[in-house]
Amino acid sequence: MSDANEILNRKVEYAGEGISVRRLEEAIGNERQRQNLQITHLGNLRGRNAELQEQLTNEMKRLRDLSDELQKSREGEKSALSSMFSWLPWVKSESASHQSIEELLRNQFELSSIRLREAADFADRLEAAKVDLYDEIDRLNKRIIQSATNEEIAADYVTELRDLKVQLEFEIAQVEPSSAKERTLISQVDTTRRLLAEHTTKLKLYSTGEERLAKLKHNTRQLADTIAHLQSDITRYVTAASEKLDLIAGQIQAIGAAADAANVVLELKQSLDAMTESINHTTRFVAETQVYFRENVDTMIEDLELYDEETEAALSGNLVFNEVIDDLDVEKALAGALAREIDALEVPQEQAEQEQKVVLEFEQQTVEQKKS
Amino acid sequence: MAEFMRGATVPSVTLDDDEARAYASRMPRIMRASRLNSHYPNASGLGGHIGVMNPDVHRGLHKGLEVDERTGLPTYKAFTKVQSDAAVAANQLNVLGSREVLERKAARDPEGIYAKQLAKYDYYSQLVNADQIPLGHMEVRYRKRDNGRDYFNVSLDKLDVSGVFVRYAIDCSQVISSSDQIAKVDEREVAQHTDSFRSLIYQFTSLDAEFTLVKLASMAGLDVERVVKGTVGPFYFPFTNTPDVFAEFVEKHGFIATFGLDMAANDVTDDRNNDPLTSFIMKTVSDEVAEGYGIARQRIGYKVFKDRKFVCARAGVNELREIIKGLGCNTIIYGV
Fold first, then answer.
1. Per the domain annotation, does A171 fall within a domain?
2. What is the number of structural domains in chain A?
3. Interchain CB distance below 8 Å, A256 and B195
4. What 3-state class would DSSP assign to B68?
5. Which candidate, A294, A305, A301, A296, places its Cα nearest to that of A49?
6. Min CA distance, A229 vs chain B (Å)?
7. Residue in A with minimal Cα distance to B180
């Protein structure tokens, strides 16, 4: 009997904070909130991405048109060079036919440099977001491991309690009815039932929590992978564009005021071509990432919203479950844990079924004895 | 110079972090010591602009510092980099969020992205408060209206293609009814230059003040009282292309900073050239152009004054003075 007292009075140590339906609900809710923040963040990044794309596309068009007209001018063809200056943002009059080409190039270069700086900062933001998500995955993994450990602790204890309950019921059947011994045993059975209810609930909650956290982790990993892709692409393109702009800076300063002279128009054309190429690099990246976002992130967000509803449904189900929990749940809760233990021990399925059958037959016998 | 114009690169040297640190911390001190007046580009702006190129300020976010070998000043690329950073700094500070959060996250991985974001936060914070100099900025100030004419003071600050910083200051007046106007005056008496005038001046910055005065004086309805061109540079360091006459001094004392003044004006009493660098850095004027200048001087009645002041290490002031005397000039030299 001292064994029974030891089991019933044992203080079971679970890792982390205690668990209840409310706490699990709060924990999952907090995790969802974190993920929603990340999605909002991603949405903002996407918005910025679209802005960059539009601005760079406009600049690229200007450069390409300007480059074409300069080429015409060099070849002695009629060009619209002078009238083209009017649509440049820093030219206020259409009559500015003597616009300094050097100034024009500088203004365009300085604007392109700012765009490039913004793109580089954007890449760093993506990397920071990626690091945050990987940290989040690490954190979720710790919680998942904790839940799994607690599930095992709960399962072991519930198994002990269930065995004790069976043993006590057997002993009750052996003692004289209404004796002090029987009363003591019945009292112990009642305590066992109470502990079984309590720890079976914990077993269920830890199991549910583990699964739900694993799903959250899956979504977080998808977000992190998406951002990692984008960050890798943007860094590659920004680096390429940066190298081109570095080259152009030297050319612009070298060409300088002589840019207006006929003998350096070719160099100017080459400079503009190089500049167009650099802008192309950046614009291409923006276009590609935009497509990537469109194809992947929207779907992911939809999935996440769907998952949100599933989570709510699961939590609601848990509340109902909590209200109707009874002894039968012990077997149900243990079934999963037992199946995993059997798998782990590589006990033959037939033997496992036999063990379960014996218990059930014994219970049946006890019921029949009571009836008689 | 002519050979350079045909090329497509700027002769430059890239300073490593230690060299850049020494260079960028020395330059603001030189600029302060130069005591430049309003005829020159803004000294504190230029000193501030170069000061943030210090690796201690940008915290290693930029690799190396590119300096023009001809002038000892940062290249257009280096100036633009800081200008671009300054343009995005305020917005990026909002995006980066709280410094405390960045610091906490950076502490977990001193080599990670949050350490970089923290460095960027600190760099941008310094940048938004740092003095900057525009790489090309024109201002027209309206002086008065008198006897059917509008009087203006025009100034253009620019990093010139020759690699020096230039401030062009022009005092002039135009006939109000002139069709070829350099600026328009609104009802608040605020002047706004025309694009064509800006372009005209923009293209003259590499040329001397006399050329600009003659060119502007040829425009219908325009009277030019004065053209002043103040330049910052060239600066000579051991890594720059230094004229032979200064090379030994630079090796011994570390640097020479020069600040040129070129003035063509009606109220200059005598033609005078007190710029010892004229023969080293100025284009040689052809006989034909020299003859044209002579005619213009007689017709318009202006005179030309050229001067240059110097800053060098305090211990070298007397030695430099002797070198400059040997070149036939007597200039101001400040020690730092």
1. yes
2. 1
3. no
4. strand
5. A294
6. 16
7. A95
* Inter-chain residue contact A127 with B6, CB threshold 8 Å: no
pLDDT at A9 over 60: yes
Query: pTM surpassing 0.90?
Result: no
pLDDT score recorded for residue B166: 92
A106 touches chain B (CB under 8 A): yes
pLDDT at A334 over 70: no
pLDDT over 90 percentage in chain B: 51
Q: Answer yes or no: is A347 within a domain.
A: no
Q: Do B161 and A253 touch (CB under 8 A)?
A: yes
Confirm whether A220 is domain-assigned: yes
- List the Cα angle B88/B92/B93 in 5-degree steps: 125
Could you tell me the CA-to-CA distances from B57 to A14, A363, B62, B134, B296 in Å, in that order? 51, 79, 10, 20, 50
Q: In this predicted model, what pLDDT tens digit does every residue of B287-332 receive, in sequence order?
A: 666 666 777 777 778 888 999 999 999 999 999 999 999 988 989 9
Q: Report how far apart, in Å, the C-alpha atoms of B326 and of each of B91, B281, B319, B331 are.
A: 54, 18, 11, 12
DSSP code of residue B191: E
* Yes or no, beta carbons of A124 and B120 under 8 Å apart: yes
**Shortest Cα distance from A260 to chain B (angstroms)?**
9
B7–chain A Cβ distance below 8 A for any pair: yes
pLDDT digits (tens, 9 = 90+) for A75-130: 666 655 445 444 444 444 434 445 566 777 787 778 878 878 888 888 888 888 88
Mutate to test the interface with A, among B77, B118, B200 (most CBs of A within 10 A): B77
- The ipTM of this complex is 0.83
Cα–Cα distance measured from residue A8 to residue B224, given in angstroms and rounded to the nearest whole number:
106
Element (H, E) at B183: strand B183-185
What CATH number is given to the structural domain containing A75? Answer: 1.10.287
pLDDT over 70 for what percent of chain B? 91
- Residue range of the domain that includes A229: 2-329
Report A:238-277 residues touching B (Cβ under 8 A): 246, 249-258, 260, 263-264, 267, 270-271
Chain A from 81 to 100: CB within 8 A of any B CB: 91-93, 95-100
Higher confidence at residue A349 or residue B42?
B42
> What is the model's pLDDT at position A92?
40
In this structure, what token pair is assigned to residue B163?
């690699």
Chain A hits for B93, CB-CB cut-off 8 Å, are: none
Test mutation, B59, B109, B117, B161, chain A, max A CBs within 10 A? B161
The reply to whether A251 falls in a domain is yes
Residue in A110, A113, A257 closest to B203 by CB: A257
Instruction: Please give the single-letter amino acid code of residue B246.
Output: F
Q: Do A98 and B77 touch (CB under 8 A)?
A: no
